[in-house]
Amino acid sequence: MEYFEPKTLSDALSLLAKHGAEAKVIAGGTDVMVDIKFKEEPGSLVNIKKIPGLTGIKENGASLRIGALTTIRELETSAVLRAKLPVLWEAAHQFASLQVRNTATLGGNIGRASPSGETLAPLLVLDAKVKVAFADGEKTESFSSFFQGPGKTSMGAKGLLTEIEVPYPAAGSKGVYLKHAVRGAMDIAMVGVAVMITPDAGKNNLQDVRIGLGAVAPTPVRAPKAEALLRGKPLTAALVKEAAALAASEASPISDQRSSAENRRWIVEALTRRGLEQTWQAATGKEVA
Ligand SMILES: Cc1cc2nc3c(=O)[nH]c(=O)nc-3n(C[C@H](O)[C@H](O)[C@H](O)COP(=O)(O)OP(=O)(O)OC[C@H]3O[C@@H](n4cnc5c(N)ncnc54)[C@H](O)[C@@H]3O)c2cc1C
Question: Mean pLDDT score of the chain, rounded to an integer?
Fold first, then answer.
């Protein structure tokens, strides 16, 4: 296996263009090193950690720009991220152990494209965009079209994720990320649900609702039927029940060593219900009627 440590973005992009699918980008290495040990060795490793300009969390008008090499711990300890994007902060806070959070990067979590990636459902409901660089240019893509299946993204083998741009939610919005895992934060999510709501000016109806589901489909997905059912209405217990069941029906989970598909659907329903109740109360100050 060849090993490269490019010092500039353009050197890294040239290496990826030259080696294509034989090359593997490595950032924190918390996924890549496990794969090398237990699955297969790539033809070459391109370590991007020494490339300047790919870390940090910057305010940019009505959005936050997060460098791909920003670690999960940097997200967790960022006051601005906690204040502006609490739903993403919650995912960082519930992510593995402190040791892993210190090493794992946001770009690696996204680049891995695992359906259970902790930050993906929150970034989906936040309408994030990813910036991907190639040897011959760069593109910005919506999070909703970036993922193509487990381990597959539209950047392919020659793209390098450089930045994630996350717009601030509308005023008055509240979001929550709920993770269910066998060993809590120490384990990869069996199911992760992100809920974001925006009440109307009078705090009587749901003006906007976004529900993101993780670990229950080949990619992170929204629950558009449940969202449509809720939009424009006041949140009642009956509506919560109906919407949560609808969200569960929109998931397409698999059975694996962590859980059966049936159990995963049931957890989606329970977490969606809890997420809707919590965000409604936080946004309106009212209990669900
Ligand atoms: C003990 C343990 C616990 C874990 N717990 C969790 C958990 O609770 N939640 C969770 O979501 N994950 C968990 N993980 C998985 C892993 O830590 C995360 O996916 C992490 O965010 C990966 O980041 P990294 O920087 O280590 O990525 P790496 O391992 O370096 O790379 C991961 C993938 O992304 C690609 N990649 C990395 N950076 C880029 C880039 N900038 N552009 C293009 N491609 C890129 C790599 O080629 C590779 O395919 C755990 C892993 C371990 C070992």
Answer: 96
